[in-house]
Each structure stands twice: as structure tokens, then as C-alpha cells.
Structure to design on (603 residues):
């Protein structure tokens, strides 16, 4: 039986390409935008920016700690640095550098992190960071953004170039459906209600927004009306949108490609507990490391696909 | 700024040392040892070498910039900043106290003029200084960027990432300095983690190394810093190896790591201040 999806796609592309294309455009719009990359220009899709603005691009070699410090120094002097490396090396490896030189010093540095989560795939758990959003959202001054597809990642990249302050922008490696409009306006901290519903609120971020769109259609076939809300900004969290939706539906599911501890689900739980306690189910990695495999296989094995969102919805509904 | 004589600079040093000791004594915490050891360097930078503006602008366009990587020697920096007009000298009374802009380690959070980045977690300042120096090049700003690190700090890996990078890009508008006092918290550096041939290491990384053998003699410091300036702009980043004595200026503090992070008591303070004339008026 085919699904009647509320959002569809004709093309797939990786979100990192959205970053690369957004960075090029941001560089054209603002001469203060500079790029830094720790030996992953191809993987981060920063090559077009480097080619067009060679004097504003800095290859740092495999030295991420130095890259973060350089970016902080460049921001101090009025530039808008975008650093690029894998999410693992963008966060855990350089946490103290980000904490002191970027977050505490409130520098206008954009930490752009690719290959986040399980969907990195075959490289395995060493590179599949699932703790990055938690680490970054705990830092005062830090904004944390996890867009869902190529178009949204491109729009987010342009938006953070215009925003003053430290940002963590997280995206991924796999080819993924492009289901949001190319002309979208990206508002940092403003959740996007993609599908109206009345029985349950599905709050999804990153690649799992697509899984939530699929899950909504599956649930609809069973007579369950799900509201799908795209939480592209993990911090600051759009608490108003979350509370308004849950007030209507009475229960919620949080879906993210992240550890169950410290991610979007925990942020939503905190919001609900303080304002309007309601059943909340998690779709997240359950306190384990990942492993090698294809993105699809991994999302299935670790319980992060549309089928698992449907199951979580049913658990939430049963607790209403 | 009118050029100051060696005697005038030395007299400022005496007052700065008094400020350092009084600040750490008042809160029974802080790091007097290397602050005292670096006093001539700081006074030479802020009162002779650098073109800087006490009406502080974060971006520092058209100015020489200074970044302190070994942030724990904040007392000497705070004293020199306030004595050169960045903030009122009375504010030194608030050092390390609640609601102060003079945090234990330098920070930007409270908007203290003169501070461009937080430091204290070691190894990060050189990277930041290089970033700022590269922006000066991009902007066609021919002023210099200075950075001070500790010698114990050379044990941090990030320092060497930064060293490799600056040489690769020929960041020759950067003058870094290592406070080469041979001491760190747990003891003499050669016992804790021997730096071995530090000069050779920096040379091998592609830097121009300039030794300032008498880092606690103003004439020698000025001469060394002038030489460093003359080495800038020639394709290589410049490193000063500044030989200092931790605790210099106070006879019972000099040359030992024991005063790295320990404040004098009342009696010790009185003794120390007795050795340092009050030249500009205590805060």
C-alpha cells in the first residue's frame, strides 16, 4: 500500500551540500565571511567557497583545536568564521577550545559539523557522534541548529551568517530526500509546524524530520492524526510552539539522530515538566555507540526510522 | 604617547609589582610568581612598544594587539591595563571578588576593557593571536599582534598545532613570547616535563627565534622587543624566548615555583612592599 505523504520529493541530496552551497552564497553576500577547514574540504563541500574566495579560506591541516582558536581570533577582529570538520571533531575533540575561546568569550564563530549521527554509515562508531547536540546545547551563549534536508541546511547556513553569536550547525553525509522548499525563510529558534494534527505531537530534528513525515502518513492510515513539528533549532528551543501543540494533542514523541541523554527529547521533557506535564516518548539512540552499516540499516537497527516513530506514538497515546 | 625613559619604565614596574602583591594578598589567591617575573615585559609592551588605545575597541583596527595565553598571570595584566588608562585603578580592589570585572582569569563576559578573549585553560592563546594576525593581513592593517605564553604551557599540544600553522602561512606580523622561567606549579619544568631544546623546536617549526636573555632588566627587554619588531615582516613568525625569574623583585619569592599560585600573608606583604617603592600611588 502506497503512502499519501504530505511532503514529497523528486530529488535526494546530502545536507552537507546544502551547507557548502549556503556558505558560497553567504560569502558572496558578505565579504567578512571566512572559511576554515581541517583537511576535509571535499567532505564538507567547502571547495566552491575556497575556489571563489581563496584569500578568505584557511586550510588548517588536521589540527582542530588550532582551527577553533584561529576562528575565535578572526571573529575577535570582525570576521565571520565558518569552521568545517566532522561533527565528532567539531565538538568532543575541541570542547574546551569551544567553551573558553568561543562560547565564554561570546565570539561570532559558526561551528559547522558534518557526518553527524549514525547516518555517517560505514565508518562506524568512532566517527558517528551522537552526543554533540547535548554538549553544545549545554554551553551558555551557544545556538544549536540541526536542519532536516538540503534546502533547509542551505537556508540555515545563510541565516547563521547574519546572526551575531556562536552557533553549532549540524548536518550529515547521506543522500536524503529534499522535501522542504528552496525559497524557505529560516528563522533561528522558530519551530515549523509542517503537518497539523490533533492526537499526538511529533517533534523531529535533522534527518528524522523526513522519517516523521513518513510516520504521519502511516499513522493517518490507521486513523491517528499526528502533528509534525520541525525543530531545526535545538537551542534556543521554541517552547511556545511545543507547549501550544501538546496542549492540543496531549502527548508527544521526540525524534532525533542522537543519544537519548541530553538531546532534543530531554529539552522537550524539561519544557513539558515545567509547564504542562504530558506523556513523552523518545526516538533516539538508547545509550549505546553505533557501528558500521548503511544509513538505512543503522536507522532500523537503532530504532530511528518511521516505523519506530509509529511505535513510539502508540506508546505515547496509550499513556494519555 | 611621549617616549618614556628607562628610569620611568622601571619606576612603573615597581608600582605594578606593588599592585600585583596587594591584589593577590587581598583575596588570598591568584598567581603572583609569573606576574612578578613578567612585569618588565608587560610594562615595556604597554608603555613603550605597542601602539594601542585605552579607549578600547574589540576589533582593534589600526592598533597593535596583545593576547595573553597563560591567563593565570592576570594580576600583572590588570595592573598594566589600569595603569595605562583602560579602567580606573580603584577597580583593582575588586580583583577575584564577586561581581567584579577582574575575574581570576581574564574574561570578556564582564566587558573589561583591554581583554579580547578569555584565557586560562592553557594552550589556546597562540591560535587566537594567529587568527587575529591573519585578519590584519586580510584588512591591509600593518600593525602587529603579540601573544604571551608560559613555558610550562609548551607542554600543551595545541601550541604546536598553532606553531606549525603560523609558519606554513608565513604569519610574520605576529610576535609570540614565551615566559621562560623554568618553573611550573608542580616544580621546575625540567623535572615536571622537560622542554629540552625549546629554541631548536621552534626553529625547526619554522619560526624566527629571538632570545631575550635578561627578561627582568628593562634595557634588555626593550632591546629584545625592538629586535623582534625588526624581525617581523620577513616571512616568518617571530618568537621571543624571554628568560625571566619567577617572583622577581621580591627577595623571598624569586626563582622558585613556590609562589606560582600562593598569595603572601600580611607579614610577607609588608616585607615585599618594603622592597618596592610606591611610585604612582597605590590604588
Amino acid at each position: 500500500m502506497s503512502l499519501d505523504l504530505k511532503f514529497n520529493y523528486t530529488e535526494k541530496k546530502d545536507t552537507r551540500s546544502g551547507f557548502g552551497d549556503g556558505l558560497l552564497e553567504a560569502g558572496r553576500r558578505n565579504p567578512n565571511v571566512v572559511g576554515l577547514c581541517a583537511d576535509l574540504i571535499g567532505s564538507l563541500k567547502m571547495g566552491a567557497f575556497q575556489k571563489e574566495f581563496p584569500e578568505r579560506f584557511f586550510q588548517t591541516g588536521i589540527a582542530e583545536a588550532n582551527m577553533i582558536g584561529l576562528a575565535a581570533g578572526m571573529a575577535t577582529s570582525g570576521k565571520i568564521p565558518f569552521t568545517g570538520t566532522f561533527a565528532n571533531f567539531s565538538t568532543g575533540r575541541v570542547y574546551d577550545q569551544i567553551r573558553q575561546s568561543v562560547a565564554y568569550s561570546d565570539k561570532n564563530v559558526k561551528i559547522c559539523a558534518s557526518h553527524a549521527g549514525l547516518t555517517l554509515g560505514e565508518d562506524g562508531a568512532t566517527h558517528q557522534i551522537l552526543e554533540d547536540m547535548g554538549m553544545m546545547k549545554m554551553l551558555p551563549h551557544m545556538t544549536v541548529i540541526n536542519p532536516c534536508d538540503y534546502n533547509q541546511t542551505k537556508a540555515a547556513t545563510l541565516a547563521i551568517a547574519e546572526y551575531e553569536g556562536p552557533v553549532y550547525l549540524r548536518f550529515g553525509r547521506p543522500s536524503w530526500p529534499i522535501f522542504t522548499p528552496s525559497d524557505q525563510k529560516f528563522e533561528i529558534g522558530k519551530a515549523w509546524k509542517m503537518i497539523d494534527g490533533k492526537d499526538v505531537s511529533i517533534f523531529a530534528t535533522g534527518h528524522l524530520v523526513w522519517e516523521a513525515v513518513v510516520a504521519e502518513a502511516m499513522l493517518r492510515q490507521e486513523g491517528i492524526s499526528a502533528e509534525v513539528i520541525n525543530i531545526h533549532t535545538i537551542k534556543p528551543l521554541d517552547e511556545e510552539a511545543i507547549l501550544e501543540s501538546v496542549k492540543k494533542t496531549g502527548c508527544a514523541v521526540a525524534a532525533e539522530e542522537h543519544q537519548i541523554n541530553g538531546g532534543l527529547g530531554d529539552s522537550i521533557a524539561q519544557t513539558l515538566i515545567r509547564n504542562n506535564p504530558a506523556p513523552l516518548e523518545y526516538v533516539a539512540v538508547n545509550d549505546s555507540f553505533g557501528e558500521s552499516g548503511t544509513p538505512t540499516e543503522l536507522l532500523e537497527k537503532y530504532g530511528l526510522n518511521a516505523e519506530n516513530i509509529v511505535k513510539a506514538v502508540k506508546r505515547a497515546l496509550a499513556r494519555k | 604617547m611621549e617616549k618614556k625613559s628607562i628610569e620611568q619604565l622601571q619606576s612603573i614596574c615597581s608600582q605594578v609589582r606593588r599592585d600585583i602583591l596587594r591584589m593577590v594578598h587581598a583575596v588570598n589567591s591568584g598567581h603572583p610568581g609569573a606576574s612578578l617575573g613578567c612585569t618588565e615585559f608587560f610594562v615595556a609592551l604597554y608603555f613603550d612598544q605597542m601602539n594601542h588605545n585605552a579607549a578600547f575597541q574589540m576589533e582593534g583596527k589600526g592598533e597593535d594587539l596583545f593576547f595573553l595565553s597563560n591567563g593565570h598571570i592576570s594580576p600583572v595584566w590588570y595592573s598594566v591595563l589600569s595603569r595605562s588608562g583602560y579602567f580606573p585603578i580603584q577597580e583593582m580592589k575588586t580583583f577575584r571578588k564577586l561581581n567584579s570585572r577582574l575575574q581570576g582569569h581574564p574574561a570578556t563576559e564582564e566587558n573589561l576593557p583591554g581583554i579580547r578573549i578569555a584565557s586560562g585553560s592553557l594552550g589556546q592563546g597562540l591560535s587566537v593571536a594567529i587568527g587575529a594576525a591573519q585578519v590584519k593581513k586580510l584588512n591591509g592593517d600593518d600593525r602587529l599582534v603579540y601573544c604571551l605564553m608560559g613555558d610550562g604551557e609548551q607542554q600543551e599540544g595545541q601550541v604546536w598545532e598553532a606553531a606549525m600553522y603560523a609558519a606554513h602561512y608565513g604569519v610574520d606580523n605576529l610576535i609570540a613570547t614565551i615566559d621562560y622561567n623554568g618553573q611550573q606549579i608542580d616544580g621546575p619544568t625540567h623535572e615536571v616535563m622537560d622542554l629540552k631544546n625549546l629554541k631548536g623546536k621552534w626553529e625547526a617549526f619554522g619560526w624566527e627565534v629571538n632570545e631575550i636573555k635578561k627578561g627582568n632588566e628593562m634595557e634588555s627587554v626593550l632591546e629584545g622587543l625592538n629586535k623582534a619588531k625588526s624581525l617581523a615582516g620577513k616571512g616568518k613568525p617571530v618568537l621571543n624566548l624571554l628568560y625571566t625569574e619567577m617572583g622577581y623583585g621580591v627577595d623571598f619569592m624569586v626563582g622558585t615555583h613556590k609562589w606560582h599560585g600562593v598569595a603572601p600573608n600580611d607579614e610577607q606583604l609588608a616585607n615585599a612592599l618594603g622592597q618596592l617603592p610606591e611610585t604612582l600611588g597605590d590604588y
Q: What stands out?
A: Chain A has a mean pLDDT of 98.
